[in-house]
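Dear colleagues,

As part of the handover before I leave the project, I'm documenting each prediction I ran so the next person doesn't have to rerun anything. This entry is a single chain, and its sequence is reproduced below.
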Amino acid sequence: MSEPLPSFPEIEQACREAGLATPAPELHGGLCGWLAGGGDPGGNWLARVMVDDDLAAPVEGSALARLHAATLAQFEDRDFGLALLGPDDDASLAARSGALFDWCRGFVGAFGLAAGSEPRLSEEGQEALADLARLARVTAQDDGDEEDEEALAEIEEFVRVAALLLHGDCALAARHRNSLN
């Protein structure tokens, strides 16, 4: 089992303290997109993901540093244990779906920064990235029913698997290519 992410409220608070105007799920999506796209897993990830060289690197042991460490560990987990940061299941459908769409926005933007304009993607990876980009443009609806709850659960699982697939196509494949050379 991979390392758990810090709590959603902890990361929200860390975003406020760092002066970020980015919701916590979007920041985590950005971190995941950066890593999946083959971005440097070390260094000041926060400045790279937020495209702001003036941002200080997260302090060791801080919520943002733990978010980074847990996310790295989850991407390396052979049991595909990647978790998406978002509100708890008792939050409203609108809050949870909005957080998921924020996560996708962060992922797509940072993936593009890390992977470049023409990343080496499998056909499945190309489709997954296009689907994530579509989800990044969606806005949450105010309410829903049981069917909407089930649909959100399916979309969350798709997003999680798509992120892992893109990480395999870009980060892991590049690492493998470099080890062969």
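The longest helix spans residues 146-180. The CA atoms of residues 1 and 79 lie 7 Å apart.

All the best with the project,
I.
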